[in-house]
Amino acid sequence: xxxxxxxxxxxxxxxxxxLLFSGVGGGASAVVVTTNVFKSAPLLVxxxxxxxxxxxxxxxxxxxANAATGRQGVEDAYRMQALAAETLGLEPGEVAVASTGVxxxxxxxxxxxxxxxxxAASLSRDGGAFAEAILTTDTRTKEAVAAVEIGGxxxxxxxxxxxxxxxxxNMATMLAFLTTDAAVExxxxxxxxxxxxxxxxxxxxxDGDTSPNDMVLLxxxxxxxxxxxxxxxxxxxxxxxxxEAVMRELAKEIARDGEGATKxxxxxxxGAESEEKAATLARAVVGSSLVKAAVYGEDANxxxxxxxxxYSGASFVPEEVELYxxxxxxFADGEPVEHxxxxxxxxxxxxxxxxxxxxxxxxxxxxxxxxxxxxEYVRINGSYRT
Amino acid sequence: xxxxxxxxxxxxxxxxxxLLFSGVGGGASAVVVTTNVFKSAPLLVxxxxxxxxxxxxxxxxxxxANAATGRQGVEDAYRMQALAAETLGLEPGEVAVASTGVxxxxxxxxxxxxxxxxxAASLSRDGGAFAEAILTTDTRTKEAVAAVEIGGxxxxxxxxxxxxxxxxxNMATMLAFLTTDAAVExxxxxxxxxxxxxxxxxxxxxDGDTSPNDMVLLxxxxxxxxxxxxxxxxxxxxxxxxxEAVMRELAKEIARDGEGATKxxxxxxxGAESEEKAATLARAVVGSSLVKAAVYGEDANxxxxxxxxxYSGASFVPEEVELYxxxxxxFADGEPVEHxxxxxxxxxxxxxxxxxxxxxxxxxxxxxxxxxxxxEYVRINGSYRT
Lengths: 386, 386
Hints:
The structure is a homodimer. Chain A starts with a strand and ends with a helix. Chain A has eleven helices and 16 strands. Chain A is globular, with a radius of gyration of 22 Å. The first copy, chain A, has a seven-stranded mixed beta sheet. By secondary structure, chain A is of the alpha+beta class. Chain A folds into two domains: 2-256, L-amino peptidase D-ALA esterase/amidase; 264-382, ArgJ beta chain, C-terminal domain (Ubiquitin-like (UB roll), Roll), CATH 3.10.20. In chain A, strand 12 (322-325) and strand 13 (328-332) form a beta hairpin. Chains A and B meet through helix 8, helix 9, strand 14 and helix 11 of A and helix 8, helix 9, strand 14 and helix 11 of B.
């Protein structure tokens, strides 16, 4: 069950407190958090909570990140956890906590408390209000769902996310919360989440900045009644596939809705020595301000793509690279391939752009997602915190 | 002596071919080139030339980068070298070659040849025309000079550079050419250039992209008559200081004149475990699109600075960081320091902005330079190649 209400944490009248709650206990949970040296208070609390047990509920607020808030911030994150537990009839250790918003301000705990009580009273099977409550500069909600049969039972995986700038001054962060009715052993769940995160959320770049609040949480309550999945289950791959489908869709939605973005950019590197190397090369391309600006300008500027690969830190033989904008080959054998420049530019005209680089090293391939760089990005991020 | 002329390589009537020439031979020379896997043809030729001997002249063109041009490009770079040598009465191995401009187009060798002959005929002691001939999207020339006494002789170091976007679609690259009348042993000269480059040009970031054409060349003809400097000379530090003064000034000018930039940003990290770690942290800050956009908006957004340090890859204790905008302390002991937000923003109002982070680890410190991110950057780089 989910809820999203306005607790009044923001100057606007927007939903800013959310709850997720499983009526069924005894399940497993897993979390992956930011690698930033700066970690927000709720993230530290959630990480600690998951280390010693499992959660069946989540409380989240938007508007204030509760990051760089010192000891008071940690106390407030524990207080959010305790308040949510109390209203839901749970132990504090059964509740995860997350925040997103402006850094360096303390939470107005009166508003947070009122929001939590309102949210608990409005829990329903509709996740729409929750999906709204976690947004910051996002322009739309992000939800995805997948179902798969496991041992004769239909198992469902649902997810909600927010993104926008990886960290915005007013508001921060990538957050994703997934729930499933599958029964999964805890360590197995953690390993699925970590692996799928590496192939999905860790391959999204809006502006290269990661925030102190980034968190992906997966709660599995086991209500589907399947035999509990473990690392050795034959059905584990099917479950992982469903989780990946949901997280990939959310990841792409985050890229597409990056601050000021007008286009989703999908960069694939194939034929690399390893998947890791392919990902390094692809990330450099999608992270290049010059590539992003060229895509915005619908200019099939292959020189910038090659250039970004060149400074990625990965070694390769330039003469062995083939480069494509959409289906059009633009570079091979160390030289430009003759092509119709207007046709190449036309591959950038839509709202989804694909760039592919083929190497001749091996079987490693990776796809990453990003967005174009626009004047609007500068306006959003150059304007004073309000 | 120097010259800069219009050879007609560009659609506009601009100077685009330059020569530097020392009437005195027998000196030493040193070069540092891009770390990009993609290297332009002239850069490969110059590197090879310097490995087997010393140059006393340089030929350079702007407009076309002669990068990603295959075998033809390498032949043309050798041809430029041979043509310049012929007109100056030198051996080809005495001439360095450089190019900057659009990637993936072949040089119009007729124009290049005409330009070289014109330039050779107009050599003079005035470097102004040469400084113009190497510009691409730069808005102004960049020149610097320093003098120092070495063993009773006055030694002069002069330099000219171009920058702008680290690589622009039409035109690319950071180039810097230094000349001195000091007598310096070749290996000693190379080591001075490499060390000073690490502290100056390698601490400039316009947009994080390095180009296939980046090159810093230093020619020392020995005309000052000082006793030849070697690694064990007591005066070497004084010479290195003069080289560093020139290169630091050029580096700052490159940052200040970054594409679309309105402000120079100087980020210093002090008290780090090592100089390298300080540089890593400072580079992450000055390279962050969010920090750059905030500076443009004159918003003293310290959260973004901390955040960039946090994802830099360097480990440190967040609670031990003190952060300053200009002289104003904004963060310490893991929490915001109360300050007048308008005063903090006022430190961003001029055209030079300083941000300082103090750690409590050791004596390592480093300063890096960058520029703000503006709508104009996006406009310049989003527009189609013309």
